[in-house]
């Protein structure tokens, strides 16, 4: 099969012998080319005009903003006149207003909300802060504070939230009915920051399990002692039981300890400590002294 060859169509030039149809076509071609050139020139002119206008606006923008800012402040319409703070119980109002860092005649919409919120969240006791603009002249600040779940004693008492984060010093004169976490010296807290915060989270994990809905315990926790090797040991309020839990499996070990208490009944009064670190056993050590039957007791055994 032989493929036919296609030749490029050549533009026909206008000679004296061309027909009227060819002359009309050539004129139309010239008109289209001229209109295309006009469009290109118009587009270039529009781009140049917009560029010059944007550049001039950029040069004059600071002056315009300054004049507008001055006029709005002078009119006193959008100047912050009222700050409403909600949800703060421990964090002081004066500290929150100071963290806002507003000018004397601050415009409601002329400052960064995100930066102000970050400064407020850096305050003690504040877990989350949200700021709303209520035009024309009011700001609303909603505070969500950290709830203390325990007290940490280092050189003085500090409040600790449910995530093991130190909130701040405990207020003087306020009655705080929370377990006290001990076993950490000020020097160890400063020099070994990678160890003690982790153990502090273990203590708050124990408190979360202890306070779960539906769990009923014969006594409350009065103190939690932390040790790098022994882990977590807590003491109860009434009978001062010492319960060793170690570093893991607190839920399982607490359930096992509860079953041991149920089996012991009234005999649990003679127990001084419970070692729940074993995999399948609880070691109960008796108090040194005389029991109800007058016999000396040193160790109860395993259950």
Description:
- 36% of the residues lie in helices and 23% in strands.
- The chain is α/β, with parallel strands linked by helices and 303 residues long.
- The protein has three domains: 21-75; 82-145, Ubiquitin-like (UB roll); 148-302, Rossmann fold.
- Strands 6-5-4-7-8-9-10-11-12-13 form a ten-stranded mixed sheet, covered by helices on one side. The protein has a three-stranded mixed sheet with strand order 1-3-2, with helices on one face.
- Strand 11 (271-275) and strand 12 form a beta hairpin.
- Helix 2 (93-100) packs antiparallel against helix 3 (113-121).
Kindly identify the CATH topology of the largest domain.
Answer: Rossmann fold
Helix residue percentage: 25-40%
The overall pLDDT average reads: 81
Major sheet: 10 strands, mixed
Radius of gyration: 40 Å
Helix and strand succession? HEHHEEEEEEHHEEEHEEE
Report the portion of residues in β strands: 15-25%
**CATH architecture assignment name of the largest domain:** 3-Layer(aba) Sandwich
The CATH class of the largest domain turns out to be Alpha Beta
Regions with pLDDT < 50 over 5+ consecutive residues? 6-10, 290-303
What structural class results from the helix and strand content?
alpha/beta
Strand numbers in spatial order across the main sheet: 6-5-4-7-8-9-10-11-12-13
User: What is the tally of beta strands?
Assistant: 13
Shape: elongated
Q: State the end-to-end CA separation.
A: 101 Å
Total tally of structural domains = 3
Our count of helices gives 6
